[in-house]
User: Fold asparagine synthase (glutamine-hydrolyzing) from Rhizophagus irregularis.
Amino acid sequence: MCGIFAVFNYPDDIHAFRRRALLLSKQLRHRGPDWSGCKISGNNILCHERLAIVGVDSGAQPLTNEDESIILAVNGEIYNHRALRKQLRSGVTFKTQSDCEVILHLYSEIGKDVVNHLDGMYSFVLLDTTRNRFIAARDPIGITTLYQGWSSSSPNTVYFASELKALNEVCDKIISFPPGHIYDSLTGETTRYYKPPWWDGEIIPKNPINYTVLRESLEKAVRKRLMSDVPYGVLLSGGLDSSLIASIATREAAKLAATQNGYQEDSDERHIGNSGVNGLHSFSIGLPGSPDLVAARSVAEFLNTIHHEYTFTIQEGLDAVHDIIHHLETYDVTTIRASTPMYLLSRKIKAMGVKMVLSGEGSDEILGGYLYFHAAPSAADFHKETVTRVKKLHTSDCLRANKSTMAWGLEARVPFLDGTFLNVAMAIDPEEKVFREGRMEKYILRKAFDVSTTGGVRYLPDSILWRQKEQFSDGVGYGWIDSLKDASEQHVTDEQFANAAERWPKDTPTTKEAYWYREQFESWFPQEACIDSVERWIPRRDWGCPEDPSGRAQRVHNSAYDNVANV
Assistant:
């Protein structure tokens, strides 16, 4: 991933603005420390901060076509770029080995319909100088981040950036650009291009579970995400999701390393970096003695990964919170809780020279894995909530995974949010997903990788495969959340909290912890415009769930599963 900053239809001297644009783009350099680029055409400017993962030597951006009539800046990865190259008309000249360059040439042939052909995670801005047209698009789920802004002093000017901090000085209206949408300056409209069959939550699917299809679609999702020319690894919390991804990645990396050149030259999966040659690296973090560290250690031993285990102190975590809020650009309680260990771990990983990791985000939303789903009144309600949560991933877990890692120039890839896997999993009858006697959360995912359905192949130890859900902020050590609550009590007085609604009538904090985060967010982003891009993550109160989003706060946490059918 990278950082992009673009301004279209700037009202004054664009060349005089170049210096200011470079300074604003520099605020994104943590996302792309490898190279910076800038292109001006007419009264438009595109800036790029590059993190080189694929086509390291030749993929500097912004990219241009042969006559430089099309200019492109991309943040992300296009996993099917080689297949798309073969679909282009003959005679197309590629300047780089970048997976993103294919967007340029595909656009020149089919226009903005290019977004319906991309398989990947991406945000991009494209300028077509021949038509004075610019388009901007974001991947279907919002794995990558993108913001759009305007200034009342020049209402016809449009700004785009990968993070809020590049816009808040020049815009007085800022939104999080919606995932699965594309903006076209020719119409001035932003339209949804992503229209999967599961989008309407009122339509309840009826497909029976097919464990083989579910398992193989996830394996393919992991395989395509090993596309890399640089060292990579896996984030391993010891929970079900990250452990499955690590298990699959270990198998797939070994397959790739078994041949001298990896996959065939024309395959999108041919790049393997150097991580599969001597074993896959895995990374975990937690407070000393935390549940996640113990579980991750057992998984790493089982998979024989090269495991790196780190601990942090409560004070180190508390010291990082202010900077984390600056990087996350949110005041959401659960996002900040979970981001702190991920942020600290990402710094350690990048220091080792690793630039890409696989992570397990998305599974809980797709399969209803959060413990509050136990309170769903019916299978239909269960399904509707999964649809809602997947649609909102860009405000929570995707935002956390992207910004916590990219704060240090580390790219996180999320196989559970693969388009094909999503379509398979979201089409399953929710009666197969709901909790009932003998079935714990994410039962069908666990069963798909259990020896009873894999032909005897053991992907994980049973103690991990059937381990109860721990949200990351809980699993790193229960003392972490308790310490955040204690710290907020010290920072926020009873009088301040009593007047919270007066200070913030919109989205008023309901706990001292939320107040403390909101205050720190405001110190970084004082403009009223910045609040519109934030959305809080709260379990369903109308299901009788507590407001505290911690899994530990849910009634079923650590309840016995004496009758779970795990064979």
Summary: The two ends are 40 Å apart (CA to CA). The mean pLDDT is 91.
